[in-house]
Design brief:
Blueprint (H helix, E strand, L loop, with lengths): L19 H12 L6 E5 L6 H13 L6 E5 L7 H9 L4 E2 L2 H12 L1
Parallel strand pairs: 1-2, 2-3
Helix pairs in contact: 1-2, 2-3
């Protein structure tokens, strides 16, 4: 009841109470043969939850052949731990959705 069925991959704000939602949703998306690349959009999730969520995302992405980009629209000082997790995993993180989608488009070519 918290989400809309017109956007079934939107994990909603419920992720604040259950950070594992990202992990479970990403696992499903990465298994799909209908999806070639993934762009994850994060907004105002700050540390320490940012680091927890980043670790869950990285755990799903490591070893995957599909490209996964992250767009995080938060001031970096609020999510240093989470951003460091992505940096250690060599995952690209963008601060602007348009730039993230443009990068995904270029990578697919």
């Amino acid at each position: 009841a918290f989400a809309t069925s017109t956007n079934p991959i939107d994990v909603t704000g419920h992720v604040v109470t259950d950070p594992g939602i990202y992990e479970r949703a990403l696992a499903l998306v990465l298994r799909s043969d209908e999806i070639d690349a993934v762009t994850i959009m994060l907004t105002t999730i700050a540390d320490p939850q940012a680091e927890q969520i980043a670790n869950k995302i990285v755990a799903q992405v490591v070893g995957q052949s599909k490209p996964v980009l992250v767009c995080w629209t938060i001031p970096p000082q609020l999510a240093r731990g989470g951003l460091a997790v992505f940096a250690r995993a060599s995952m690209p993180v963008f601060d602007d959705p348009a730039r993230a989608i443009h990068a995904a488009s270029l990578a697919s070519r």
